Amino acid sequence: MQIEGGRSSCVPVPGRFAMPRDGAITFDDLSPRLRMLRIVCGKCGRAGRYSVKRLIDRRGCDGKVVDLLADLSADCPRHIANKFNDRCNAHCPDIPRVM
Ligand SMILES: [Zn+2]
């Protein structure tokens, strides 16, 4: 997706939501509901807040929350250790409230 002038352009595409998205939540889904997206990992004690508008600017309207979580947890010690029973728990606590 091409973004010009730093403005996000989420132009609705007819029939777009008819496409299967594997249940993935996109930043476009969040933008009318959340201004800031909180990301927390209770195991690592990490927490961050990200502007949904800036996430759209950087990753596009179709950017998926799961991909963001994967990128953010890439340097998590638990993620690197890759232990099945002690995985990084990075998640967005606000999403169940608004979706
Ligand atoms: Zn973690």
What does this structure look like?
There is one protein chain. This protein is an alpha+beta fold. It has one domain. 29% of the residues lie in helices and 12% in strands. The protein is built from 5 helices and 2 strands; from the N terminus they run H-E-E-H-H-H-H. The longest helix has 8 residues. The radius of gyration is 15 Å and the shape is elongated. The protein binds zinc ion. Zinc ion (ZN) binds next to loops.
Secondary structure blueprint with pairings:
Elements: H1 27-30, E1 36-41, E2 46-51, H2 52-59, H3 65-72, H4 77-81, H5 95-98
Antiparallel strand pairs: 1-2
The site of zinc ion has 9 residues, from loops.
Features:
binds zinc ion, 99 residues, 12% strand, alpha+beta
* Helix-strand topology string: HEEHHHH
Count the beta strands.
Answer: 2
Global outline: elongated
Average pLDDT confidence is: 83
Strand order of the largest sheet: 1-2
Low-confidence stretches: 1-6
Please give the radius of gyration in angstroms.
Answer: 15 Å
Beta-strand residue fraction: 5-15%
**Total helical elements:** 5
The total number of structural domains is: 1
Most strands sheet: 2 strands, antiparallel
Q: What structural class do the secondary elements suggest? A: alpha+beta
What percent of the residues sit in helical stretches (DSSP H or I)?
Answer: 25-40%
What hetero molecules are in the model?
Answer: zinc ion
Termini gap: 25 Å
